[in-house]
Structure formats: C-alpha cells, structure tokens
Amino acid sequence: MKRLTPVIEWGTLLLSTGIVVFFLVVILLDLTIKGMPALSWEFISTFPTEGMTKGGILPAIIGTVLLTLITAAAAAPFGICCAIYLNEYAAETWITKLIRASIRNLAGIPSIIYGLFGLALFVQGLGMGTSLLSAGLTLGLLSLPYIITTTEEALRRIPNSTREAALAVGATQFESIRDVVLPSALPGILTGLVLTLSRAAGETAPILFTGVAFYINNPTGYLNQEFMALPYHLYMLSTQHHSIEEVRPLAYGTALVLLCVVFFLNLTAFYIRYKHNKNGPRAH
Amino acid sequence: MDQEHIKLSAEGVNLSFGSKQVLKNIDIAFPEHQITALIGPSGCGKSSLLRAFNRMHDLSSNARIEGKFNLEDQDLYEKNISVTRVRSRIGMVFQKANPFPKSIYENINYGLKINGIPKDQRPGIIEKALKESYLWDEVKDELHKPAITLSGGQQQRLCIARTVALRPEVILMDEPCSALDPLSTLKIEDLILKLKKKYTIVIVTHNMQQAQRIADKTVFMYLGEIIEQGDTGDVFNNPKNELTGNYVRGRFG
C-alpha cells in the first residue's frame, strides 16, 4: 500500500499537467489549421469588402495597435508614478494598506464594468463620444492596477542597499530613485507593462460601449472617431454576421492574427527579461 | 587619555524603532585621524549608532531619534542643515559591496556629478580616488566595464573609492569585510590603515582580530548601551568590565 502512494501522487500531477497542455495544444492547432488558409498579405493589408465576406482586416489591426498605444500612454505614467509613491515614499500606514488592497481589488473587477464606467465617464460625462480616445482611456483604467502591482514588485526586488548607496554619496531621495533605483527596476517594469498591454489588446467588453465599430470605411486613426479592433471584429464575425458560415474562415484568420499580436507582445516581455538576466546578473 | 581633537561626537542618544529601543543614552566621541572600532554582539545597536551619524535613519518612518550629534561644531540634525551635505562630509561603506549598476568610472563619477563638481575636474578626481583605494592598477584599462564584473573585494574597494572621491572628513564602515575572503579582507584593512592619515574612520566589526589589527580605539556595546570604551589595547587586554572581558575572549557573542 505504502509504495503505491507516490505513484498516485505523481500520476495525478502528470495527468493534470497533461490535461492543461492537451487543451492548449488543441486550441492552438485548431486555430492555426483553420486560420492559416485565410492568411495572406492581402488579408492583413486591405479593408474588408462586400459586407465583410471578402477583403482583409487592416483597419482592425491598425485600430488595435493605436488603441494599445493610447492605453500605454494613458496608464503607464500614472501607474508607474503611483507605484513609486507607494513603494518608495509612502509610510506603511493603514491608509497605504487600504490603497494597496483597493488596487488589488480593482484588478479583479470584471472588464465589462470598466466598459460601463468608461461609457459613463468618458463617452457621456466628459463628452468624448464613442471614440478611439474614450476606448483607450477606458482600457487604460483597466490596465492601471496591473501596472501598479507589477511596477511595485519590480521596485521591491531592488535591495535597500542600492538606495542607500546613492544616499550615502549625497543623493536626495528623488535622485536615488531617478538615477539608480528606476534604471535597475526598468526591465521588470517594462515586462509588466508589456504583459498588461497584451492583455488589454485582447479585451472586448471595455471597448464595446466606448468606441469600437463593426465597420468603418474611412481611414482610421482619428482620436475622436470610432474604430475597428481585432477582438471585436472576431466577435462580430463569429456571432453577429448575417452569414456566419461564409465568414468563418475570416473569423479564424482574425483569431490567428490577434493571437500573433498578443504572442508577439509576450515574446517582447520575455526578451526584455532574458536580455536583462544575461547582461546584469545581480546577486541578492 | 591625552588631549585629542574630537572630530565626531554624540551625546545623550536614544533611538527607537516603533516601541523597540535600540540605543540607550549613548555618549561617544571619535578622535580625528584615528580608527575607532565598534564591537559587540549582533543586535547591540552598533550599526544603528553608525547610521545615525550620516542620518540614514531619516527615511525610516518609525525611527525616533534624540540626542546631539556633532561634526566639529556642526550640529548634524540642525533644522536648516542639508542632509545631502552631511552625507558628503560623512561617507559610508556598507556591509555588502553595493556598487551602482553602472560602469566602474560612472560609479565614482555619479557622486561627483550630483555634488556639483565641475565636469573637467572629475577625471582627475576619479583617477586619484582609484589610486587612493589601490584599485587603479587593476582597473585602469577597463574603466567602462560594469562594476558588477569586479570581484567582491574589488567591488568593496570601488565603494571606498566612491566614498573618498567626495573628500569626506569621516568615513563610516559597517562591517566592510564580512562578505570577503581573508586575502581581500587584509587588502581592505591595509587600505583602511592608510586612509586614516586623511580621514577619521569609524568601523563596525564582528571580527575581534580585525579590531585589534587596525583600531586605535575600541568601543564595546551591549543591548543598546556602551559598556566600555578606550584604547584598543586596554579594552582587549585589560577590560574594566566583566562583560567586555567575556565578549572579547569569545565567551559569548
């Protein structure tokens, strides 16, 4: 009896891992096999034509890229500054603990709520209308808690002796953060930022009410106009189109492109971390 | 004791973190151009005392400090005094070498830059500081390599170079050799002995032999209080207090 236990333990763990990997592989294979035929230079470089049944997804790609950039521009400065304040300046009182707990909770709020909040605040309250800007700011709000949390973790990994080294040669606290702490934490901060953005790029619910459009035929890129985005395009093609069967290959193609965008962002994060570990291995 | 010029001193020091008192009514004085060793078991408050002089406790929100700290006639905790000025007059070398994640050259240049030393004077000061720390010959051809590629002992000498480049009057050392091998330790001790001609040095150490090899004065601390202070020879060979005797003979610690 006793000798069976390790086998069972080991088997359970292996089985769990196997199930996870199995589904992952099936999803990736299914998407690749069914999406590949749709992929072509034309698919990613032209506008959709004939009621979405032909043509490409260029405006959705541009829309997603611009949306992600606006999200980054809106959320990164505030998020990073907030994390610096919490980790470097704020005393550990019940107020900071409360703020930190609230930020953690914000990260758990369903994204559709952010969508409704964005609709109320940016679209209606501030009169920005359904637009690229409104949607980007809404996604920025969604990303803030993640950026704050990952930045704080990156800062916490910098040993105090590094801060003290700068203070001891006569640097002010601000100089020590600007010149020594932030450069050391930058790879960690960037990794967190890119991973957060890759999450935001795939979100549908927050942009649903705030600016995404089913179809636009004019050039995209104006902050005050509606736009197309990959996740929403995929949602429309797979559930809302008048001839779903006909556009299915295009839906798979879109899914594959979205996956590639997210994968590329994750790869960037991985590369930053790899390069940092290679160049500056620090023992602490 | 003969009449020595007191460089750095503290009177009536009490320090607590939250409800924990770590220093109790400390009176201490460090004579100029001498090496004073602070010894005592872990947690006796010797590092906390050392760090009070260059105001390293300023950023701990729960630290409460009272007492009078003087560098010559300057009150170090006076309201209008600039804390960065205090820290460039009183340099510090830490337990674990903590070079900046920059090049060897930049490690020294940084302190000069933020203290407003003109650009054209810096290369000369950097070379001089590296020579003073006996590191120049080892690094002169690779000044722009990351400091992290140096050995532990070299990194610690770089940290000393970074400190002396600012021409401080006092150098505080917090167990500077505790992470080093015996050979690197001897090199640093050698360096410290040479530095005392120009600087007043206070060193925290756990190593009794080290204190006897380099220190002119020794201060024994226990549970946040100074138990005994005097010439190193007297403290080690003729301790007045029984606790001191037991500690330096290695009966506890």
TrEMBL record, chain A:
This is Phosphate transport system permease protein PstA. Pfam families: BPD_transp_1. It comes from Arcticibacter pallidicorallinus. CDD domains: TM_PBP2 (cd06261). GO terms for biological process: phosphate ion transmembrane transport. The chain crosses the membrane at residues 12-33, 57-86, 106-126, 132-149, 250-272. Belongs to the binding-protein-dependent transport system permease family. CysTW subfamily. One of its GO terms (molecular function) is phosphate transmembrane transporter activity.
Automatic annotation (TrEMBL), chain B:
Gene3D superfamilies: P-loop containing nucleotide triphosphate hydrolases. GO terms for cellular component: membrane. The keyword Nucleotide-binding applies. GO terms for molecular function: ATP binding; ATP hydrolysis activity; phosphate transmembrane transporter activity. It holds the Pfam family ABC_tran. Residues 8-248 form the ABC transporter domain. One of its GO terms (biological process) is phosphate ion transmembrane transport. It comes from the Bacteria. Keywords: ATP-binding, Nucleotide-binding, Phosphate transport, Transport. This is Phosphate ABC transporter ATP-binding protein (PhoT family). It comes from Arcticibacter pallidicorallinus.
